[in-house]
Design brief:
The complex is a heterotrimer of chains A (324), B (262) and C (191).
Chain A (H helix, E strand, L loop, with lengths): L10 E12 L2 E12 L3 E5 L6 H8 L7 E6 L2 E2 L3 H7 E4 L11 H11 L4 H14 L15 H12 L6 E5 L7 H17 L3 E5 L3 H7 L2 E6 L2 E6 L1 H7 L5 E6 L4 H9 L4 E5 L6 E6 L5 H13 L4 E7 L3 H13 L1
Helix pairs in contact in A: 3-4, 4-5, 8-11
Chain B lengths: L8 H15 L2 H21 L6 H30 L1 H6 L2 H5 L5 H30 L6 H29 L3 H16 L6 H4 L2 H9 L1 H13 L12 H21 L9
Chain C lengths: L2 H36 L6 E5 L3 E5 L3 E10 L8 E9 L8 H4 L4 E4 L7 E9 L4 E11 L7 E2 L3 E6 L6 H10 L2 H16 L1
Parallel strand pairs in C: 2-9
Antiparallel strand pairs in C: 1-3, 3-6, 4-5, 4-7, 7-8, 7-9
The chains are: A alpha/beta (324), B mainly alpha (262), C alpha+beta (191).
Chain lengths: 324, 262, 191
């Protein structure tokens, strides 16, 4: 049965060796992870990696071929109880077009066992939260794509879920809308201690939002951990960019090339810029050592900046490795 | 999540689907089309110079049969769209994500669909009363429309919802459901001499639609209600199977893709 | 028992049978002869009909009687009275079973001077001109059939679906679902 209120450390979802096969095709295999209350987990992977399959299995839409999972200690053998605890923003969203936004959310709330008045009030709150109160009484058929995405997100929260699955939550939003959406997700996680499993193609979104990331490829988990841990796993180095006089570039190149654990190359587009990478982390000490070496060699530095290795780099590197 | 004292899932689905049907123009449109159909039918009968008293009872029987058949197919139309339409519209997933058991979703939709039949009966009453005027069998005709007719319409709704739940697309759903009901309804048009052949007779009895048609005709022609009441066995059994077993099947088999192994 | 006794018993039995048969033949012969001698000609039996014509509308019933009278000096044989209905115009076909629930009545012998009244009912089913009559026949071959005068029935067709009844229904009933449709479409458009 469902446990009591969760603390921030309480594990709300446990997945153990989840696999999903369709005849000869293994869409997902060996998915094991835990999510704690208030945590935001990212699911990354190229198309067909198994992200949507994973969400559908964990949200009980699909039955796992192997493995088990629990939500708030409710086993997957009791899917109806699990559904009462989760909210899902699916990848594809459809609505009964003749209903209004308010009618639809109220309907959904009532399907979660809420009395009509409670469902109506909850619907009104969510419509206000997602900026749809002006369209509450209007048919969904007249909604824009962004409005439908907001409505779908509102629907995923109608039952105050303990675990929230979001598949491409920023789809259809303009940059402002994306920011608002992500803020709402963050608040849900932090304030309401909702565990969030977020799948997105936008790596910067995942990088900005998620404490942990699972990278899937061809149905398998190829990397798991915090963003920093993943970057370290693939040893994608941080870099810095150093601007100098064009005529000084060859000299600077030879100076830095002679430094151990340093790689340097000329920027492809800006001929007076060098991109310097240090094996391991480009921390302050390493950065100072590089700059000192250049200054002592008489190279005039016009500007420099440090750039952290992106999750994009890590992701692409990871995918390339696993596809070999 | 608030547990509250909300209604059962099937009740919520039922009330919402009834609202969608009747405030969303589909129900009124089907009802209007039905009234136009009966209008054309009656006008053609009235203009027929070959009508005589003997055939008036047969006319009533035919009118009831036609009304029930239209009811069957109208309800089948809605039933076949019930889940596969949501699937095509991509709104099924959100429904499947709720804690309502799949079987209750089916029951709610099925009962909402039957509200169309409840609307069709009052439309049919004036036409049947017109055709039966002076025969003394108008009340009997109406009872024959309502009781055995509802058995068949309920069966049709059950078949439609079941097929819709298992079909991957709306096209497949409509195709299968209509073929099934057409195969059941077609033998009503067999000539009497064929119907009386030994093997065919048992098929007539076992087929719910033809069994009800035979029962209605016999009562209209003056037979007692209990004389051939066993003709109502096959429609009752079929209804129980469709409406009783159908939701149970969908409870475990209703899926997002439909017809695809999960 | 010896074989002589058996033969004697058999012969005795046969004689009894022959006597019985002979006696029966004699009785039968006498009786037949009486009938044959006393059988009235069918001309002694008359059939009258209570009405000779009727003008009806399709679907109505007509009732009439026939009176059978034995005007002869001896009793009639048992008779069968049979009602016939015939269409008088080409192209019309009467199915007697549909027009009358009871078309045959069996009668005991009528004594001299005795009469009997037979009731008949006809259900006229469609328009046209028809004649109905009663025929008396008997098992006795010498009794020639006797036919009553005919009842001439003129049937007018009353339309099962007169336009005065049809038009109000077909004009008014569809208006209700149409009104509902208009209201719901208007409601949907407003949203």
């Amino acid at each position: 049965m469902v446990n009591g209120e969760t603390s921030g450390n309480h594990v709300v979802l446990r997945a153990n060796e989840i696999a999903k096969s369709y005849r000869q095709l293994e869409a997902l295999t060996g998915l094991s992870f835990e999510v704690r209350a208030g945590e935001i987990i990212g699911l990354l992977g190229p198309n067909g990696a198994g992200k949507t399959t994973a969400i559908r299995v964990l949200s009980t839409i699909l039955r796992a071929s192997r493995g088990h999972f629990t939500v708030m200690d409710v086993p997957d053998s009791r899917p109806e109880e699990i559904r009462a605890l989760i909210g899902v923003l699916p990848e594809s969203n459809g609505f009964p077009m003749v209903m209004s936004g308010a009618e639809y959310l109220t309907y959904m709330g009532r399907l979660y066992g809420q009395p009509k008045t409670t469902a109506e009030a909850k619907a009104a709150d969510l419509l206000r939260l997602f900026g749809l109160e002006h369209a509450a009484r209007v048919r969904i058929a007249t909604y824009s794509r962004g409005m439908k995405q907001r409505l779908a997100t509102a629907r995923s929260l109608i039952n105050d879920p303990k675990v929230l699955f979001l598949d491409e939550p920023t789809l259809g939003f303009d940059p402002k809308g994306q920011r608002e959406m992500l803020q709402a997700i963050r608040e849900a996680a932090e304030v309401n201690q909702v565990a969030v499993i977020l799948s997105s193609h936008l790596l910067e979104v995942v990088e900005a939002m998620c404490q942990r990331v699972l990278i899937l490829n061809r149905g398998r988990v190829v990397a798991e951990g915090s963003v920093a841990e993943i970057k370290r796993q693939v040893a994608v180095p941080d870099t810095c960019r150093i601007q100098t006089a064009a005529e000084a570039v060859p000299h600077a190149l030879s100076v830095l090339s002679s430094m151990p654990a340093v790689t340097v190359e000329r920027h492809a587009d800006h001929q007076n810029e060098l991109i310097v990478a240090v094996q391991g982390r480009l921390d302050d000490a390493a950065m100072n050592a590089v700059l000192q070496q250049l200054i002592q060699a008489g190279v005039t530095i016009h500007a420099f900046s440090r750039e952290s290795a992106g999750l994009t780099d890590a992701f692409l590197s990871m995918i390339e490795e696993t596809q070999v | 999540m608030s547990k509250g004292k909300g209604q059962a899932g099937w009740q919520v689905v039922f009330t919402t689907e009834v609202r969608r049907l009747w405030l969303g123009w589909r129900g009124p449109l089907l009802l209007f089309a039905f009234s136009l159909f009966l209008t054309v039918y009656i006008v053609l009968l009235a203009a027929d110079p070959e009508i005589n008293v003997l055939s008036q009872r047969r006319m009533i029987g035919l009118t009831i049969q036609v009304t029930v058949l239209v009811g069957i197919f109208a309800v089948l139309l809605l039933g076949a769209d019930s889940f596969s339409g949501e699937r095509d519209q991509r709104s099924l997933e959100s429904l499947l994500l709720t804690p309502v058991p799949r079987g209750q979703l089916a029951i709610g939709k099925l009962l909402a669909i039957l509200s169309l039949w409840l609307g069709m009966i009052p439309i049919a009453i004036p036409y049947i009363a017109l055709v039966g005027k002076g025969t003394g069998v108008v009340m009997a005709s109406l009872l024959l429309l309502i009781i055995p007719g509802t058995l068949l319409v309920g069966l049709s709704a059950g078949v439609g919802v079941l097929v819709s739940g298992l079909s991957p697309t709306n096209v497949v759903s409509f195709g299968i459901a209509f073929v099934v009901m057409l195969l059941l309804a077609a033998p009503t048009q067999l000539p009497g001499s064929v119907k009386d052949l030994p093997g065919v007779h048992w098929l007539i009895v076992a087929n719910p639609i033809t069994a009800v048609a035979s029962y209605q005709a016999e009562v209209i022609e003056g037979g007692a209600w209990t004389d051939r009441a066993r003709l109502l066995l096959s429609p009752i059994i079929a209804l129980v199977l469709a409406v009783g077993l159908g939701p149970r099947v969908l409870n475990s088999r209703l899926s997002l893709q439909g017809g695809v192994e999960e | 028992m010896n074989s002589s006794d058996e033969k004697l018993r058999t012969l005795l039995g046969l004689r009894v049978v022959c006597l019985v048969l002979l006696g029966g033949l004699v009785v039968f012969g006498v009786a037949s002869g009486a009938r044959a001698q006393g059988s009235p000609t069918s001309g002694a039996v008359t059939v009258e009909i209570s009405r000779e014509s009727a003008a009806l509308t399709a679907g109505e019933w007509v009732e009439f009687n026939t009176v059978l009278r034995n005007n002869g000096a001896i009793a009639t044989p048992p008779m069968t009275a049979h009602l016939s209905i015939a269409a008088l115009a080409a192209g019309k076909h009467v199915d007697p079973e549909d027009w009358s629930p009871q078309r045959t009545q069996f009668l005991s012998p009528l004594q001299p001077g005795e009469s009997v009244q037979l009731p008949w009912r006809l259900h006229v089913l469609f328009e046209g001109a028809f004649a109905s009559f009663v025929t008396l026949v008997s098992e006795n071959e010498s009794f020639a059939p006797v036919v009553s005068p005919s009842l001439r029935v003129q049937v007018a067709q009353d339309s099962i679906l007169p336009w005065k009844d049809v038009i109000p229904v077909v004009a008014v009933v569809p208006l209700f679902p149409l009104a509902l449709l208009v209201i719901t479409v208007a409601y949907a458009r407003r949203r």
